[in-house]
Specification:
The complex is a heterodimer. Chain A is mainly α. Chain A has a domain of about 200 residues: MetI-like fold (Orthogonal Bundle). The radius of gyration of chain A is 25 Å and the shape is globular. Chain A has 13 helices and no strands. Chain B folds into two domains: about 55 residues, no CATH class; about 180 residues, MetI-like (MetI-like fold), CATH 1.10.3720. Chain B is built from 16 helices and two strands. A two-stranded antiparallel sheet of chain B has the order 1-2. The model of chain B has no long low-confidence stretch (mean pLDDT about 90). Classes of the chains: A mainly alpha, B mainly alpha. The interface between A and B is large, with 110 and 107 residues. Chain B: Pfam families: BPD_transp_1 (PF00528). Chain B: Keywords: Cell membrane, Membrane, Transmembrane, Transmembrane helix, Transport. Chain B: Belongs to the binding-protein-dependent transport system permease family. Chain B: It is found in: Cell membrane.
């Protein structure tokens, strides 16, 4: 394990204590070496670079309108009222559309992907490889390239400005990730557990709900959060399929703060903060599992 | 058809059983992914007026118009530059960042979390923040460049980056790298976890220098992770829309359009030509998918 290959830094004391408790051999207690300190400093700088634009977003959201044209890194006063005045701009309906679209797409994906992932993980049948290839290919297609076709399709169906259209498109293009993640989790559950439940008198469906789903819960949560975030952040399809401000999700609605001659920056960024923070927190919860879902079907 | 109807009922039932489980997924793919593909092709052969009335069939005229469009060649070249520069820089930066974040240091987990922000946040919002930070008069990035004395070194006191096509395109490449690095870094970090510690010990015993170890041991073992991150990035960056849209709308003129942005710009008034641009983009994507399927061993993975 890598744990023993590099010198332990300041956390060594607690780590060593933990190691002592678990009985694992541990390297000598070292004070942080210069090399470790340089590495840590460099890593903090990199981390800061990736965070700073979002800090700037929050700072601008708090700038009083009259300070927007000031050339200074920090606002001189903090206008928390930007967040309360935001609601009188009609952003509430955009927030509602975003929640409906992301929530609806997530529910639809779970409903559709769970049986497919379960069946392909458990059974070998004719057409299985073809189905998984279809899923892999749709994962690589993005709605961006097809946006003209998507517009033509929903225009014919009379579904412009209809959140259902956004739910369907987002679900269709994000289902693949859910299928990969769930497939991996279902595949890792031993058959014997399920068979034991059947012997104990469970129906197949009962076994699914009492045994399989609880065990695959981390995978289900990952699929759920990932789909929600993807649909929440989607931009080009929403931009194409909506035409009235009240029916636009946040990503499109926020653009209405950008006028032809002036930009309502403080509200634009107050809205962005509201749209971004929950998503970053949710993403942090599934961070470790996302790579495997995105790169499924390719590495090993 | 006939072979199915000749089957005894029980076997027919067995052949159809997967449909109950997979049917909804196939239906959703058909509706949301395949139907738009068909529509895109159909529209590309139709003649629409600029205000959206169907005037009849266009044959291949949308395509010939697109190929004769003086913007078309430069835009395709620029798309190539866009994908090449963004993906190349992203992979280089990500290899470095992953190597750094793979070391042990206090607060590593928190530092890794910071990297999530650009990945989780909407790209459209990230693009708008950069547009704000590049504001000629008040933008924080411009203030920083001025305070560091870089602005005068770059030979300009007027920092209207987004108003000049070359500078705007360079900044947009930087933003695209910024939002692509987190995923790539995480993929490479996942790849680094699979490198057994013994190979490093062996390299150390053999007296290899750190740089030699990296080139001769780490990089070759990272090949699968680098490959998959590169391919996924190529796909994402080719399809990238919000960065250019929010920062310049593809302007000034058409000078910062990529083929994806151009497709969207054409859509406003020339939907037929936009559809033919879309078909060209789609062909590029299909070619990339085929490359992906060839170099990845997806069959082994799903077996």
């Amino acid at each position: 394990m890598a744990a023993t290959s590099a010198p332990a830094p300041a956390a060594a004391r607690t780590a060593a204590a933990a190691a002592a408790r678990t009985g694992r051999p541990r390297a000598r207690r070292n004070p942080p070496r210069p090399r470790t300190m340089i590495i840590a400093a460099a890593a903090y700088v990199v981390a800061l670079i990736f965070l700073l634009p979002y800090v700037e977003m929050a700072l601008t959201a708090l700038r009083p309108p009259r300070e927007l044209l000031d050339a200074g890194y920090l606002p001189r006063h903090y206008a928390w009222s930007n967040f309360s005045s935001l609601w009188s701009t009609g952003i509430g309906s955009n927030l509602r559309v975003s929640l409906t679209v992301a929530g609806g797409a997530t529910a639809l994906v779970l409903l559709v992907a769970t049986p497919a992932a379960y069946y392909t993980a458990r059974r070998r049948f004719r057409g299985r490889t073809a189905f998984l290839l279809l899923v892999l290919v749709t994962q690589m297609f993005q709605p961006t390239a097809l946006v003209v076709g998507i517009f033509g399709q929903f225009n014919q169906l009379g579904m412009i400005d209809d959140p259902t259209a956004l739910i369907l498109v987002n679900a269709g293009f994000n289902m693949a990730f859910a299928i990969w993640i769930l497939n991996a989790y279902f595949g890792a559950i031993p058959r014997e557990l399920e068979e034991a439940a059947l012997v104990d008198g469970c129906t197949r469906l009962g076994a699914m709900f009492r045994v399989i789903i609880p065990l695959a819960l981390p995978g289900i949560v990952t699929a759920l959060i990932f789909t929600f975030i993807a649909a929440w952040n989607e931009f080009i399809v929403a931009l194409t399929l909506t035409s009235t401000p009240a029916n636009e999700p946040l990503t499109v609605g926020l653009n209405n703060f950008i006028g032809a001659y002036s930009v309502d920056w403080q509200h634009l960024f107050a809205g962005s903060v509201i749209a971004t923070i929950p998503v970053i927190v949710l993403f942090a919860l599934i961070e470790r599992k996302v790579v495997s879902g995105l790169t499924a079907g390719s590495v090993k | 058809m006939s072979s199915l109807s000749n089957l005894p009922p029980r076997r027919l039932g067995r052949a159809a059983a997967p449909l109950g489980w997979l049917g909804p997924a196939i239906a959703l793919i058909g509706f949301a992914v395949l139907w738009p593909v068909y529509e895109m092709f159909r529209i590309s052969f139709q003649h629409y007026s600029p205000d959206g009335f169907l005037l009849g069939s266009a044959g291949f005229r949308n395509y010939t118009k697109l190929f004769q469009d003086p913007n078309f060649g430069p835009i395709m070249l620029r798309s190539l530059l866009w994908v090449g520069a963004v993906v190349g820089l992203t992979m280089l930066v990500s290899l470095g960042v992953a190597q750094l974040f793979n070391q042990r240091f206090p607060g590593r987990r928190v530092a890794r979390w910071a990297l999530i922000a650009p990945w989780a946040a909407s790209v459209m919002m990230t693009a708008i923040i950069f547009r704000w930070m590049l504001d000629p008069n008040t933008g924080a990035l411009n203030l920083l460049l001025r305070d560091l004395g870089l602005l005068s070194k770059l030979g300009t006191s007027q920092a209207d980056w987004l108003g000049r096509p070359d500078a705007a395109f360079a900044w947009m490449i930087a933003v695209a790298v910024f939002v692509s690095v987190p995923f790539s870094t995480y993929t490479i970090l996942a790849g680094l976890q699979t490198v057994p510690a013994e190979v490093y010990e062996a390299a150390e015993i053999d007296g290899a220098s750190p740089s030699r170890t990296y080139l001769a041991v780490t990089l070759p073992l990272l090949r699968p992770a680098i490959l998959v991150a590169t391919l996924i990035n190529v796909m994402n960056v080719f399809n990238s829309f919000p960065i250019i849209w929010e920062m310049t709308r593809g302007g000034p003129g058409y000078e910062t359009n990529t083929s994806t942005v151009y497709m969207f710009n054409l859509k406003q008034n020339f939907i037929g030509q936009s559809a033919s641009m879309s078909v060209v983009n789609f062909a590029v994507i299909v070619a990339m998918v085929l490359v992906f399927l060839r170099v990845s061993n997806w069959k082994k993975e799903v077996a």
